[in-house]
Amino acid sequence: MIKFPSLNEQMDLIRRGAVEIIPEEELVKKIENSIKTGKPLNIKLGCDPSRPDLHLGHSVVLRKLAQFQKLGHQAILIIGDFTGMIGDPSGRNSTRPALTLEQTRINGETYLQQASKILNREKTKILYNSEWLSKMTFEDVIKLASKYTVARMLERDDFTKRYKSGEPISMHEILYPLAQAMDSVAIQSDVELGGTDQKFNLLVGRDIQREFGLEPQVILTMPLLVGTDGVEKMSKSYDNYIGISESPQEIYGKTLSIPDNLIYTYFELATEVSNQKLEEIKLYLSDPNKNPRDLKRELARTLVTMYHDQKAALEAEEEFDKIFIKKEIPDDIEEIIIDNTQEINILDLVIFVKFANSRGEAKRLVQQGGVSINGEKISDVHYVVKLNSDLILKVGKRKFVKLKMKGS
Question: What is the mean pLDDT of the chain?
Answer without folding.
Answer: 87
